[in-house]
Design goal:
The structure holds 2 protein chains of 2 kinds. By secondary structure, chain A is of the alpha+beta class. Chain A has 7 helices and 5 strands, in the order ββαβββαααααα. By secondary structure, chain B is of the alpha+beta class. The longest helix of chain B has 18 residues, at 306-323. In chain B, the strands form 3 sheets. A 5-stranded antiparallel sheet of chain B has the order 4-5-8-6-7. A 4-stranded antiparallel sheet of chain B has the order 9-10-11-12. In chain B, strands 1-3-2 form a 3-stranded parallel sheet, with helices on one face. Classes of the chains: A alpha+beta, B alpha+beta. The A-B interface holds A 16-17, 19, 38-40, 43, 46, 52-55, 58-60, 62-63, 65, 106, 109-110, 113, 116-121, 123, 126-127, 137-139, 141-143 and B 1, 3-6, 8, 26, 29-30, 33-34, 37, 46, 48, 50, 74, 77-78, 83, 87, 90-91, 94-95, 97-101, 103-104, 233-235. The structure holds flavin-adenine dinucleotide (FAD), iron/sulfur cluster (SF4) and FE2/S2 (inorganic) cluster (FES) (2 copies). One FE2/S2 (inorganic) cluster is lined by residues 35-38, 40-45, 55, 57 of chain A.
Chain lengths: 172, 324
Amino acid sequence: MRITVNGEAREVEADVRTTLLDLLREHLGLTGAKKGCDHGQCGACTVLVDGRRINACLSLAVMHEGDEVVTIEGLGTPDHLSPLQAAFLHHDGFQCGYCTPGQICSATAMLDEVAQGWPSHVSDDLDHVVLDDMEIRERMSGNICRCSAYPTIVAAIREVAEADGALAEAAE
Amino acid sequence: MKPFDYARAETVDEALAAGASGGRYIAGGTNLIDLMKLQVDTPGKLVDISRLALDGVEEIDGGGVRIGALVPNSDLAAHPLIRAHYPMLSRAVLAGASAQLRNKASTAGNLLQRTRCYYFYETAAACNKREPGSGCDAIGGFNRIHAVLGASASCIATHPSDMAVALRALDAVVVTALPDGAERRIALGDLYRLPGDTPEIETNLQPGELIVAIELPAPPPGRQLYRKVRDRASYAFALVSIAAVVAVEDDVITSARLAFGGLAPMPWRSAEAEAALVGKAAGTEAFEAAADALLKDARGYGHNDFKIVLARRTLIACLRDLTA
Ligand SMILES: Cc1cc2nc3c(=O)[nH]c(=O)nc-3n(C[C@H](O)[C@H](O)[C@H](O)COP(=O)(O)OP(=O)(O)OC[C@H]3O[C@@H](n4cnc5c(N)ncnc54)[C@H](O)[C@@H]3O)c2cc1C
Ligand code: SF4
Ligand code: FES
Ligand code: FES
């Protein structure tokens, strides 16, 4: 099958039972996305498919023929960190780091969802999103952190959102 | 996972042909793949319908909407028509799962997701739904999340969907394609079956029948609400949930629609509870009568006894808020 990963067109052969997560980790050597629960319950495997965040553990690789996948390795490099990667470092948004690639991929897509005006469970007004800490927490609830680094994860995301003007924009 | 054949359908006709020869449809895969990993479900052939062009939300005659079977839950919740006219549906979808899951979960897949009963997931346990005739370890076991309405001596599992509860209150119709291509329309309440002594048969769909869309009539009069009570504030299934639309004129309730999640094997509707409200003054007396009507046949199994009290209180609180 053909699949584009981090901007590179790849040709891979895999058993139909292979999940997207196993394809990335075992076949393509991209071990950034983590296997926490393998059942959609933790978010450690979060990657972007055609720009949207999904759990790579609950998707069959073969169903992603032709799709564009971005993993943590594709968001930035140690020399050129993405804004969220830099903010997680700056705020210590992790302890053991196992959930971090999933958190950062998830947050990347989350800010995009806010920019599109998508409401969440805690939005008072479905048509008017104000990205406060409650909103960040709710929108990131699909990413569990076993070390409970939540306060610094929220701080890191808030910093990038503020820099983006997402807060101001959404609050308008 | 057990080995299986895989085919991608490019058109509805291709999907129906593959479905008629025993293929199982897979859309987002967020429920089916989970169950396949645990070998709770072991389809021999998967028909990938995720690329079919059934992903639109559009207005239909009479002021309603038609929602394609493959519209992702995220897109449904954020759609301007749904936000504007069916806010309780947006709310119900947003109360379910996580953002990642909602991006993959489809409208039809959400309706057909299976129960979260622990024993259904545990292949070493006795479960009539997974293995007919083997017994039910939930009865007499850990049954905190189980049903208090509509259950049977064979199975006390609940239907876990939030979205389906709002759709039930909104009188949704499920539009399907039969294997020969003919269209069928099924009221959402008639899609599901109560367990009786065949809990393994959960819907009235025929083998190979494909859901193509959900249609909603024009929004009912009144204010809408979806409230979900659960063990943590996010990313947890409902213990009790309520979708309600209530209209009041001069302090008198003129129409009411109530649907419930977490209580029964299907999204539950109570005509008796609705009738207890209509024509009555909006107030505690009517609200309590509605709760009595809803719960008159409720039965707890030990760990879930609290749901009967919780449902009562949640209903009364919702009605109070809606008519305030
Ligand atoms: C950790 C976790 C938490 C969750 N929390 C919640 C929650 O709080 N609330 C909630 O409501 N849900 C919750 N979910 C469930 C989630 O909503 C469902 O998994 C999802 O909606 C299923 O949709 P899908 O498209 O992925 O279905 P699939 O897994 O692709 O399919 C499910 C079933 O539907 C059948 N099917 C799919 N499409 C069609 C069609 N068009 N015609 C006929 N048959 C079809 C399939 O054959 C399969 O049997 C949770 C899931 C997980 C993993
Ligand atoms: S409640 Fe239903 S699903 Fe759960 S163990 Fe009993 S038969 Fe199985
Ligand atoms: S590994 Fe995918 S959600 Fe936990
Ligand atoms: S940093 Fe350890 S799990 Fe989040």
